Amino acid sequence: MAIARLAQSEARSGDRHAERRIREQFERALSNEEATGRRFSTGALLIGLGVISLWLFIQVELARVWYYQAILGMFGLLVMANYLVAQSRWDRPWRTYVFQLCFLALLVAVIILPNPFVESWPIQTRLRFGNFVYVLLFLTPIALTFRPLAMIWAGVCAGLAWAIGVAWVVTRPDSKTFWSLESAGPIASPELLALFLDPNFVYVEGHIQDVVIVLLMAAVLALVVWRSRRLVLSQIGIARERANLARYFAPTVVDRLAQLDAPLGATRVQPVAVLFADIVGFTRFAEGSDPQTVVATLRAFHGKLERAIFDQGGTLDKFLGDGVMATFGTPTVGPHDARSALAAALAACAAIERWNGERMARGEPAITISIGIHYGPVVLGDIGSERRMEFAVLGDVVNVAQRLEGLTRRLDCQIVVSDDFVHALRAQSPGEADALLTGFCAAQAQELRGRAQPVAVWTLTALAA
Prior knowledge:
The protein has 465 residues and is α+β, with helices and mostly antiparallel strands. Helices cover 61% and strands 14% of the residues. Strands 1, 2, 3, 4, 5, 6, 7 and 8 form an eight-stranded mixed beta sheet that branches.
């Protein structure tokens, strides 16, 4: 009982560890995607700064260009510093938002403030060169980071920084706007043109439009980022579901299930080969061994049976303490399910025999396996409560297969298969049946507990297997 409780505890602990591992993998995968997006965003910003730097050499005379080159170098250092901090142990959740605020505030200041070494034009003319596009240029790489909130924050910071910068220029005593003339009554068209051409004029309406555009652009990009993030999460979830399926089904079956549109748990009846395998004398082995050795032995045993079952395209239905239940023909019926079941049984016997050679070389006792196989119609579907559902295989075929495995002790053999299984094997794989049945002998019909009619069986001794 102590061993059983330990095994159950290990199983529950294993489930918790599996769930935690899946959650950690989920978070790690998303974090990796964000890190990749951060690298792309940093690269895009640096490339953009490089292109602007080259363009300035073409557009601006040398007397003014070095000031802006120094500014671009400062921006490049700020971008690299943000990236390096993000990669270090000093990274904090608020780092992205502080960087965006500083970058955009500095960018707007550079756009609005004139070159102190050369320029002497009125400061209002700085708003006429269309340099607001550089603010928009900064926003687009943020969309690569998979963080919608960062996108919204950047848009708000850009709009607010530009609004504050324009307001500072407008409130200067020498600034002129359309608003300053409206109080004087109707204005003629020539006067409006003269005002528009005045070096101190600021087109406030156009800059309000800029703020609205940047906010709308940030909202749209945030929606795109949110959709991209959902897509990444969906792909991670699909990978997790496939990993969960791989714990029960062979890889080829997992690929087939992933393409199904119909639900896996739809209740139905179909012919299936059911296999039960068990360790003979496990109670006696567990009594003379420490719990850690017992659990380690069980894990190794389960691993070898799992490999034999999956190699033949079977489904690992469940672990039963020191035993295993597997099905062949689930979730979909195959043309050679009976052959696959017997091939898996023989492969499992061979794997255990090789393992015994290793165990005895280490001075450990040999493990004896017993297997029972039956073939026939079963019921497949979801069972359980609303809180926990399980896809299960039910019916007389399952019960008979389990009883056949128990017959191996009484009949002193390693594998017991039903006559129905042999008929199915010969019908499905006539070219391989005789070879697979080599060493099997027909035995008398056996009475099985809980069953009124005896079952005709075939047996295979350990030596023949």
